[in-house]
Design a protein that fits this description.
Protein name: DNA-binding transcriptional response regulator, NtrC family, contains REC, AAA-type ATPase, and a Fis-type DNA-binding domains
Largest sheet: 5 strands, parallel
Strand content: 5-15%
InterPro entries: AAA+_ATPase, AAA_lid_NorR, CheY-like_superfamily, Homeodomain-like_sf, HTH_Fis, P-loop_NTPase, Sig_transdc_resp-reg_receiver, Sigma_54_int
Distance between the termini: 78 Å
Pfam families: AAA_lid_14 (PF25601), HTH_8 (PF02954), Response_reg (PF00072), Sigma54_activat (PF00158)
Structural class: alpha/beta
CATH superfamily of the largest domain: P-loop containing nucleotide triphosphate hydrolases
Number of helices: 19
GO molecular function: ATP binding; sequence-specific DNA binding
GO biological process, one term: phosphorelay signal transduction system
Shape: elongated
CATH topology of the largest domain: Rossmann fold
Length: about 475
């Protein structure tokens, strides 16, 4: 496809030379001798690049650039001038020019600038397309489920969004999203962003558990050149990258205490200081955090700052686990089965009544993430259109004997003896039996008990349990 260039130049010889050069390189070039004539052309045509002289009869090139940028930001203006001083360059950039070129014009340099402007235009168009697509798939309407627990959570989110739409300032309240692993906390954060006042800004997600603690500070706040051994260049942090939008801090409970103090300052002052810098920078962003940990207990244990905890939970949203969502399991399963079926070229997949009953009775310790991943394997290996219980790749450890409950729960006799039960001892015995069964694999044991890893670690510490030395 030919790209169109509008040339605005009162020197007819120079304008004709530029047009001939560009047309020979397969550009569509149109010449106007004044800014007023160019505005008439722009009323019916939309060129990709505007190439204009600064000094024109009547309206100046600077004013033309400013008006074009206001009416159609997609057009990339390039300014030409015979003066070539710093003041002209600054004025051109302030007016909205993409770049600046001094006379006499070197045609090869001009072509290079035009190519760069067209590439920047292409990237901006692609970015806006992906942002729009992400926004369509990330709003509150994208949250599947109509159970009482989901309706209550959606009502809370809508109430918050409505309150924010009436705010007179841009300082939106900090939100803490709590829920088990795999419940979809990120979707709630995206809904708050893409349905909220900052939908036009960036949405920057940081998984605090996936970045080593000694690197997390530099990732968040950036660094100056020479701030540490490998800091060969200045780098902007993710906090600055989220300026004007939303910063989503997932797994906030994994941040270590020294960095928690800096995060508290960000929340209080909306300012940061890059590593190795002496000057603070102001940022304008909304902060949403999420956790599957019990932050209150971590505060009591001295693992999380009390002041940061209360600053993070100005607004608190709890995401219900899948096992508490009733019929939502079937709706979600149908959605993911259709999604994976389309991906693998298997449209029309469905569940038998027995399979639906099994989906509803299973405890789903991995929540929606476990359901989605399980159904991908189911769709991929499905021999026909109808999915039965045997084709559901539910975790075998939780499905012994066809009972979706953990074996330890099935084997437990709830009948009370005459003298009653000692509940702490029952809990201690259950935890010990589970740890012994998994050879003290905390992740597997937590899954069997329906707990998070942090909750199980807390119980191990509270009960004073220690792994036995099997060498003797």
């Amino acid at each position: 496809m030919e790209h169109s260039i509008l040339i605005v130049e009162d020197d007819e010889t120079l304008a004709d030379n530029i047009r001939t050069y560009l047309e020979r390189r397969h550009y569509e070039a149109l010449v106007c001798n004044s800014a007023e004539e160019a505005l008439e052309v722009l009323g019916t045509q939309r060129p990709d690049v505007l190439l204009t002289d600064r000094s024109l009869p009547g309206m100046s090139g600077l004013e033309l650039v400013a008006r074009v940028c206001a009416s159609d930001p997609r057009i990339k203006p390039i300014m030409m001038t015979g003066y070539g001083n710093v003041e002209d360059a600054v004025a051109a950039m302030k007016a909205g020019a993409y770049h600046y070129l001094t006379k006499p014009v070197v045609l090869a340099e001009l072509k290079l600038l035009i190519d760069k402007a067209l590439e920047a235009q292409r990237l901006e168009h692609a970015l806006s397309f992906y942002q729009a697509r992400e926004a369509r798939a990330a709003g509150l309407d994208a949250l599947i489920g109509n159970s009482p627990a989901m309706r209550a959570m959606k009502a809370t989110v809508r109430q918050l969004l409505e309150a924010e739409s009436r705010m007179t300032d841009a300082d939106l309240p900090v939100v803490l999203i709590e829920g088990e692993t795999g419940t979809g906390k990120e979707l709630i954060a995206r809904a708050l962003h893409f349905d909220g006042n900052r939908r036009g800004g960036p949405f920057v997600e940081v998984n605090c558990a996936s970045i080593p603690p000694h690197l997390l500070e530099a990732e968040l706040f950036g660094h100056e050149r020479g701030a540490f051994t490998d800091a060969k260049e200045r780098r902007v942090g993710l906090v600055e990258a989220a300026d004007g939008g939303t910063l989503f801090l997932d797994e906030i409970g994994e941040i270590e205490l020294p960095l928690q103090a800096k995060l508290l300052k960000l929340l209080e002052d909306r300012s940061i200081r890059r590593l190795g810098a002496v000057r603070e920078r102001k940022v304008n962003l909304r902060i949403i955090s999420a956790t599957n940990c019990n932050l209150e207990r971590m505060v009591q244990q001295g693992k999380f700052r009390r002041d940061l905890f209360f600053r993070l939970r100005v607004i608190e949203i709890k995401v219900p686990p899948l096992r508490a969502r009733g019929e939502d399991v079937i709706a979600l399963a149908a959605h993911y089965l259709a999604l994976h079926g389309k991906r693998y070229g298997k449209p029309g997949l469905g569940f038998t009544a027995e399979a639906r009953a099994l989906l509803k009775s299973y405890s789903w310790p991995g929540n929606v993430r476990e359901l989605r991943n399980m159904l991908e394997q189911t769709a991929l290996l499905a021999p026909g259109n109808l999915i039965g219980p045997a084709q559901l790749a539910i975790c075998p450890e939780l499905m012994e004997g066809g009972d979706p409950r953990p074996a330890l729960v099935r084997d437990f006799d709830p009948a009370l003896p005459g003298e009653g039960l000692n509940l702490p001892e029952v809990e201690r015995d259950m935890v010990l039996r589970t740890l012994d069964r998994t050879d003290w694999n905390v992740t597997k044991s937590a899954r069997l008990l329906g707990l998070t890893r942090d909750m199980l670690r807390y119980r191990i510490e509270k009960l004073g349990l220690a792994r036995p030395d099997r060498r003797h």
